[in-house]
Write a structure and sequence with these properties.
The complex is a heterodimer of chains A (251) and B (292). Chain A has one domain: Alpha-Beta Plaits. Chain A has eight helices and eleven strands. In chain A, the strands form five sheets. In chain A, strands 10-1-11 form a three-stranded mixed β-sheet. A two-stranded antiparallel sheet of chain A has the order 2-3. Chain A has a two-stranded antiparallel ribbon with strand order 4-5. Chain B has 292 residues and is mainly alpha-helical. Chain B folds into two domains: 128 residues, no CATH class; 132 residues, no CATH class. In chain B, helix 2 packs antiparallel against helix 3. The longest helix of chain B is centred in the middle third of the chain and has 28 residues. The model of chain B has no long low-confidence stretch (mean pLDDT 93). Classes of the chains: A alpha+beta (251), B mainly alpha (292). Bound molecules: iron/sulfur cluster (3 copies). The site of one iron/sulfur cluster has 14 residues of chain A, from helix 2.
Chain lengths: 251, 292
Amino acid sequence: MTALPKTTDRKLGLVIDLDTCVGCHACVISCKGWNTENYGAPLSDQDPYGADPVGTFLNRVHSYEITPESGPAQLVHFPKSCLHCEDAPCVTVCPTGASYKRQDDGIVLVNETSCIGCGLCAWACPYGAREMDAVAGVMKKCTLCVDRIYNKNLPEQDRQPACVRTCPSNARHFGDLGDPDSDVSRLVAERGGMDLMPEQGTRPVNKYLPPRPKQDTAPAGEVDILAPFLEPVADSPQGFLGWLDRALEKL
Amino acid sequence: MHPAPSVIVFTTLSGLGFGLLVFLGIGQPAVTGWGAFWFFLIAYALAVGGLAASTFHLGHPERALLAFTQWRTSWLSREGWAAVAALVVMGVYAFAAVFFGTRIMVLGWIGAGLSLATVGTTAMIYTQLKSVPRWNQVLTPLHLVSLSLAGGALMAGQITETAVLMILALMLQLGHWQVGDKRFAEAGHTIASATGLGRPGRIRAFEPPHTGSNYLLKEMVHVVGRKHSLKLRAIALGLGYVVPITLILLPGAGHLLGGLAVLSHVAGILASRWLFFAEAEHVVGLYYGARG
Ligand code: SF4
Ligand code: SF4
Ligand code: SF4
């Protein structure tokens, strides 16, 4: 049913820390792996080893450069997957009922057996979180690893989304953002977690933690005791090279 | 947005077809017998042909019936209902007009209303998308509906109605461009709001997430050069509106000039519809550094 639930009992989602993400793309790969080998149509690739490779991914990492008014420039790696919006426009546009938001945990899913592959939901998503699979002809999106987080066959510590479990710098956190006392909610409160494109009115569940300003790279007054040893041996070329240099200059 | 030929052809032809059905429904012209046969054949070919073209781009056309289930929330589903209802009601009306020489007025009016509603629902599919600010404005449905009516009047050979509706459609087209050009900036979408990284300073897309292309870029990120778009706007205005109005208003304009007017109109509207898609920027482009 493509009517959105008024409220959901829980708001499961991700908190993504733009301060600690190192842009290694491990989450991209683990997401692709898990979601190709498990629930739903595999995430296909076209021409993977050829000149024009394309493929379906549920999670992608952008990189942005920030030049502050003062201080050093910053590179910010920016992982993006479905934000499991509370007012999800992708759900209400769906003509078949394939797209839906779950009442009990707020996860936005696609029922692949009723999706006609019209692509309208991908148009409606402002964040580019949905991609049509070229082989399966159905819409793919982040499932919040619904087949991991409730999976009793997995050891307790693995009942986390694949991307969260994989991240080597702990930049992705999973939890209930509807519970103000959960770890993720406290993290959002402490670090000033933010919504992407709030003016779209989608009310995303996923939050992003802004990067901390960079520390000064060279603290004033501190002298590097190794510096003298690292000085260049010769300022200007001598001997044959020096002669060559001077000769060339005269030409 | 990517200007997919199937969608451009679909919306243009079905708009014309349903516009013609509106006029046939209200009895302008009040045709019966063979005359009605040809008129309805053309109207149905355009409307149904357009609908068929729209299924070409579906990943699973065999499940298309499921698209009738979500009419409570989805404009695409409502479009399906409106189209089928219009075609069925007008089918009965056409049958009576062609084979029994009687026009069942009530059915005609209902069918005309449903045909108009079909064009309206199609327009709302685009209008509802906040993610495409150019479409997300009041003039979008007005532009598409007025165009369908003007084209329908032209096909139905109604000179006065065509002239009035064509001028109205022309003004709405200009308005849609005018307002549309500013919508993105007005809605306040920037790379800073998209990433939330606005505060500390100047932000620039440094590297996309992938070396090749992807579905999003192919489907939604399409850039038209300004010069290119101005030229096409001129062509759309000239062929789509000005030439047809002039041709039908020529004294003693017969079927030949009428036919030319229709051809010119269709060519112009195809250009207009191409721009409708190609110029519509999706906000996802911001993540890829579109719009600086
Ligand atoms: S991020 Fe996009 S796909 Fe996910 S719920 Fe929001 S609108 Fe839908
Ligand atoms: S592509 Fe599938 S899930 Fe998306 S709107 Fe169409 S039918 Fe619904
Ligand atoms: S939660 Fe699962 S499906 Fe979603 S981005 Fe992470 S790994 Fe991919």
